[in-house]
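Q: Protein A?
A:
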Amino acid sequence: MSIETEPDVLVIGCGIAGAAAALRLARDGQRQVLVITRTANAEESNTRYAQGGIVSRGLDDSPQLLASDVAAAGAGLCRPEAVRLLAEEGPGRVQRLLIEDAGVVFDRDTGGALLHTLEGGHSVPRVLHVGDATGRAIEEALIARLRELPNVTLMTQATVVDLITSPHHCRDPLAVYRPITCHGAYVLEREPGVVRRVLAPATVLATGGLGRIYRYTSNPEGARGDGLAMAYRAGARIVNAEYVQFHPTTLAVPGAENFLISEAVRGEGGKLYTPDGRHFMDSYAPRWGDLAPRDVVARAIHHEMIEHGYPHVLLDLASHMAPDRIRQRFPTIHATCLRAGVDISLDPIPVVPAAHYFCGGVLVDGWGRSTIEGLYTVGEVSCTGVHGANRLASTSLLEGLLWGDRAGQDIARRSDLARVAEQHVPPWEDVRDNALADPVLVYRDRRNIQHVMWLYVGLARSTRRLARALRELNYLWEAIDGFYRETRLSDDLIGLRNLAQAAWVVTRSAWQNRQSRGAHFREDARPDDFTSLHDQETLEEPWV
């Protein structure tokens, strides 16, 4: 199948959620599935960078106990039916889809039993892992499985420009009377530099998160809010966009990426110090010290950096664990930091907080169906309601696996998803200047957005900061949108436009929510205000 062929299903993104949907469709529905990713390497996704693990069913565990832990972490904003679905059906999918079908080799004890580890917020050990590189093992196994299937075409270096929807892109004048419907996407095939029209009765949006809207993030380059921006432009309902979870410790070395330093490092005795050697966490959290909840630690580090002008703080594990044990327990972290010039078995790690996980997104039901007909949204770009205002550790991979599989199951059994007539959807027409975007301008605009978001819409927010952010983002959006409409299309230009739009959506939601809850911390919170502009009403579609 080439990109010019009309597939039965278009899957945009191939992390755990997109791959799970494609596998279900190819295996059970016998559909022709086109999976596209903007990267050159199909294994490159947010999933690949998940260190900790994936929630399963631990010993002395139960669906009720898992649901209780998820709800407690979500700060009262979790959708009960979504949490129940995750707790009851999720662990079984891990066994069936990852262990039995994909052949992921999770860590086991000497007797061959699966090892479950305990993470923050969990009542019992229930997290399966593959060293400290669980996401990479899962992603590689799923992509290998996809490549074996004859009715799946996996295309790399293909960037979605926009979703195709009616009535917006439809020549049929009567389409205005029908619900908004997705018919596929316009896709930039980067090798020839041509925008193709890809029409499909069902589209699965699985583009990951938006950490790259911030100056500091644990996310890879592709996490620039592409899916959120496209869905917003198409008219999908977006909820809880203000809830962006920040991880307290990522590597802070000039020229190196903000590689995530697992909370397990502090769990093993690591302690946080200022660059001048002052241990500070006991002042912020006397009860927990360095093992305080993620949001507390992140805000403490952020405050120290702003208050004293520190470029970072230091996480010292070498003083509390033997070098050989450090290299054995944290092989990936040790190797990555060593490449950046830091030997964590001997020296403290310079760290900063960073945007980590997007808890909001495109509102979906229990089958991944969005408010746009024909558009399914799964993984981090979606909002199932599982995470509420703050995500419980290691539930993100499980959510992506479960909703991706359920979306594929739902599409496979539906007969009402009709293909739009080709003559009703115009091919892409481009009247732009043939010159490529100036990379200096793209870089400067991207950096401006990231700095605005980090300073004004980051760990601690206020009315004045958010007002400043909206003014600056509105100005940047006008300039970037004009730049986009006049300049030859490229992946960088498409990404910049999406970055600006995703940043504005997050900021607007943060502005409208005047009460602190979970990952949304307002220094000027008003307790008498409504918690969130976004209600949690149930969609018309059934959950099960």
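Q: Protein B?
A:
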Amino acid sequence: MSDARTRVVGVDVGGTFTDLFVLDEAAGTAEIVKVPSTRGEESVGFMNGIARVDDRGAQSLATIIHGTTVGTNALLERKVARTGLITTRGFRDVLEMRRRDRPQTWGLRGGFEPVIERALRLEVDERVLADGSVHTPVDLDQVRAAARQLLEQGCEAVCVFFINTYANPSNEQAAAAAVRELWPNDHVTAAAEVLPEIREFERASTASLNAALQPVVGRYLERLDGDLRARGFGGELLIVQSNGGVMSRRTAGELPVRTALSGPAAGVIACAAIATAAGHPDVITGDIGGTSFDVSLIAGGQAALASQTSIDFGLVVRSPMIQIETIGAGGGSIASVDAGGMLQVGPESAGSVPGPACYGRGNERPTVTDANVLLGRIAAQRPLGGGLLGALDVEKAREAIRRHVAEPLGLDVLAAAEAILTVANAKMAGAMRLVSIERGHDPRRFAYMPFGGGGGLHVCAMMREVGVVTGIVPRYPGVTSALGCVMADMRHDAVQTLNQDLAAIDFAALRELRAGFASRCRARLDSAGVAFESVREELVLDMLYQGQTHTVAVPVRADALDADAARAAFEAAYRAEFGRVLDGIGLRVMNLRYALIGVRPKFDLSVLAPRGEGRTEPLGEQPVYFGGDWVQARRYARLELPVGARIAGPAILEQADTTVWLEPGFEAVVDALGNLILRQP
């Protein structure tokens, strides 16, 4: 048995399964553990997985890195803490006014309910102007009275959000200090502490969501940490951020809004490393889970970062995060025929509870998984999860498709099942085009890497739909996000709005601001108690021409932070994005963004490679309905295939965490790292 202190575990809690990737750095080995998730009690599934790692349990582990969906799910389901807002008089409705957008772009229907109801949004006298001057000092007696009123109304958390505090946070800081003196817990969020950046709605939304999540995520992480310590865990518990980095449990409790979409972000980090090692640094990733299809683009081995995202309509988070597009097309997405006689798939999902009709848990409406089961692409007696769910009920899947799709459309049940997959594939292909073609990338020069439990079932269809030449199915597609947790570096970001003409900026003061960012971010790195191979920083200026609205992200060097370097870097970035520069127009700097990255030790991906001679003989054959007819597909144990094994479709490659459907005309080769490299000869 190897030294237990060398073992690192990545944990991703999904709607159906909790996935663990266990890396023993000393022995150079890796294993996966998969257990059922416990809906509403995510920590139970987490601890069940830890107990399965080996008989020593938590005390055998050095580090646990967790990608959590607790915050995201709480926002989507509106199961957040009762939260109050104290704001500048006249601005209590910023959260509802938003950007005057609407849920239905071309319709008049739809509603929006902020996470903080209007009765809990209280106003006080104060005002800071856009230039940072204090027009009206804050009335602290009003602030204290508002805080007491919110406590009487049952609020557990509070957000203090004043106008223009990106320019001068003094009023907001004084108010937050007054609230903290009488608030019975630590769940007090000051907007300028979370996002000192221009744009009032985005700052109000991000800070309010952070406040509403603090009790929910904080309790979850404290309970998790307590359970781990009780079982002998003496290492570090780290949490994946939406920017693809990790942070300490304490920081995650303070800034839970930064955990939104952390699971998919970890998956993209893993895909970038795997694809680059496989010789394909340009790749489109597609995570197919039970509810959604999350797609991202990696160019040159680097995932793109977005400055903000929407968790749901009106729930905007402005924080650096990996650019991920999400649509409602997963294994549990429900198929139906609308009033106009059109077949629709998603966004409504059966989720993991009750799940697809074939689960036999009470759902009678057909899903994408039901279609795959009926058509023979998932063997009912060998379901996903290595049998953790038990056998699937083909007849329940057939009846659901017959009743809700086949009969309304006048199709036979097999044609209806194929139609469900055709519509789902078209939706997913549209998302892939969104991150590639619509952003100026030719998808033909990218490989496609599917992951998640359902990714391998649709890989060939996605390649055909989008025109991708190469597909890469990683060794363990269903636990890729857990693998990404182990790979992620520690990262902390900071931002400050400048809103000044380039010619007027005091670069000496700017260098002092950068030094302050470096000091605070370094303190957060050090507090995590984690060893790093190196520490590097990234510095970005958000710049634009005078008169423009939208900025361009301009990377600059910390040791060359001056006006000439900033101008040259902006022109290079602007020309790369738009093909030209605009001579004779002044430049403006809106924000300074800073990131400090603690580079964690990387492991050799060869630990994932097949060992020994393996097995290339098929396990047997299975009938699969494809293109309007039945074909005999050979079945293989995917993880037993040796390096260099070549499989021609039609074929089904089975493993505990996924199934890969290789269509007729496609070929798969096992590369040196155990990936399946797919091509259509």
